[in-house]
Design a protein that fits this description.
Layout: E1 8-14, H1 20-23, E2 31-37, E3 52-55, H2 63-66, E4 73-76, H3 86-92, E5 95-98, H4 104-120, E6 130-134, H5 138-150, E7 153-157, H6 159-165, H7 173-179, E8 182-185, H8 203-208, E9 213-216, H9 225-234, E10 239-242, H10 253-256, E11 261-264, H11 273-291, H12 299-302, H13 317-324, H14 327-337, H15 341-353, H16 361-368
Parallel strand pairs: 1-2, 1-3, 3-4, 4-5, 6-7, 6-8, 8-9, 9-10, 10-11
Helix pairs in contact: 4-5
């Protein structure tokens, strides 16, 4: 396969990749044809003449999509790549880039909103409880740092890192099951091998967990949703927060509406406006590197101004966080949508794709005072 870039370039981009129309409209030295398509319209016929394909997670990138196409570069404006057949891309000599790490702050902001909501509900005590973090990559590491700022004790579990780095700070899963009050998952989805994370939390693990709370803002299949529902049913003191679900968008509605699922959201932890913008920027930069051209997209010119008039830094942290991100509103909206099962899957997709604007806390604080930007992260 000829992978040498050409002077004309046909780019097809997912309509849900934030800012794609602006980012990919011009690249130095190339005559660009840019088509913006809905994910449902991306198929083997519609993308066959494209040189570059920019997608999000709702597009399955595999042989069925790409066979016979001219595609030389695939970029996914998402932090995960579960929807991409990486082996096929490698075999065909097709370059690939994901936005791994780009929305880390957005996910951690989501987590902090969850933790403060649990504190408000008296389900988490920052002074005496322990958060067990399973998966200590970019998100887990930043979450640990943020918890340190807040005074919340953490215990960490990450077997691959523990093997490679031999750091004492990592504990095995049994330690977390015994001593953590709340477990939160931030692992990748690994379907085989000794680090398999599919149903990492299953009925057997739940039976050994001494704490009361489960949070999943990582990958849906990492938690056995049926086993989780059964575990919640056994004790009214138990609770869960779920942003990621098995079978999305056709999820377990009995779990969504379960009264002990205190926060339920439709996989939007990383969906702050700045997080989505960073997703596209990562892939744009990777394409520029592939083509060996300079970066031209001025992302800040496309982002709206942040309204900070109503924010008072003298308020306590919990009140500020509710101003930055009133997470209960997302949860209430999802639980209400679950009352209409026949339209829920469509609602789930639509809400993710048309998510209300939520701005980065760091950028919001920067807009108020540069000295305040590290208040939470």
């Amino acid at each position: 396969m000829n992978t040498k870039p050409v002077s004309t370039l046909h780019i097809i981009a997912d309509s849900n990749a934030w800012g794609a129309a602006s980012a990919f409209k011009a690249l130095d030295g190339y005559a660009i044809t840019l088509d913006i398509l809905d994910a449902q319209a991306m198929n083997a016929n519609s993308i066959k003449d494209a040189d570059v394909l920019i997608v999000r997670s709702s597009v399955q990138v595999n042989e069925a999509l790409l066979k016979g196409s001219k595609v030389k570069f695939v970029g996914t404006a998402t932090i995960g790549d579960d929807h991409v057949d990486l082996a096929y891309l490698k075999d065909q000599g097709i370059a690939f880039a994901s936005a791994a790490g780009s929305s880390t702050e957005s996910v951690v902001e989501y987590m902090l909103a969850c933790l403060y909501q649990l504190q408000t509900m008296e389900k988490l005590d920052f002074d005496s409880d322990t958060l067990g973090i399973i998966g200590v990559g970019r998100i887990g590491s930043l979450l640990e740092q943020s918890c340190e700022i807040l005074g919340l004790q953490t215990e960490l579990n990450d077997p691959p890192r523990q093997r490679e780095e031999e750091l004492r700070k990592f504990k095995d899963i049994e330690y977390l099951l015994k001593y953590a009050d709340v477990l939160t998952l931030h692992t990748p989805l690994i379907r085989d091998g000794k680090d398999n994370t599919v149903h990492l939390l299953d009925a057997d693990v739940f039976s050994r967990f001494h704490g009361n709370g489960i949070i999943n803002a990582g990958r849906g299949p990492c938690v056995d949703n049926q086993a989780l529902r059964a575990w919640l049913d056994e004790d009214s003191k138990r609770f869960a927060i779920l942003d990621c679900w098995e079978g999305e968008p056709s999820v377990d509605l009995a779990l969504v509406t379960h009264p002990q699922v205190v926060i339920a959201t439709p996989h939007i932890a990383g969906h702050s406006l700045d997080g989505k913008a960073a997703n596209t920027l990562f892939v744009y930069n990777a394409l520029c590197d592939f083509l060996e051209v300079s970066y031209q997209w001025d992302i800040d010119a496309d982002l709206p101004e942040i309204d900070v008039k109503s924010i008072d830094l003298n308020n306590k942290r919990s009140d500020l966080i509710k101003q930055f991100y009133p997470i209960v509103e997302d949860s209430n909206t999802m639980k209400e949508a679950a009352e209409t099962p026949e339209t829920f899957a469509a609602w789930f997709r639509h809400y993710r794709n048309h998510y209300p604007i939520r701005r980065s806390w760091r950028k919001t604080l920067q807009a108020i005072s540069p000295d305040a930007e590290d208040m939470f992260l």
